[in-house]
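User: quick one, fold this
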Amino acid sequence: MQPGDAVLAKQDGVLFIPANLVEHIVLTGEVTALFDVFGQQRIEEGNIPPERLIVNGQMK
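Assistant:
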């Protein structure tokens, strides 16, 4: 743990993120969250079957 590092604490554990990676991790997490919301909306609307979802940049 160094000054400027971020700490993410959840019910199942604690994660220490080095300061130089915080911005990248936050942006990556936001993009992933948007893909998740978009994919869920498409499934609920019946516009795409679950097996056609893209997960982590790869087609399932």
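User: anything notable?
Assistant: The radius of gyration is 16 Å.
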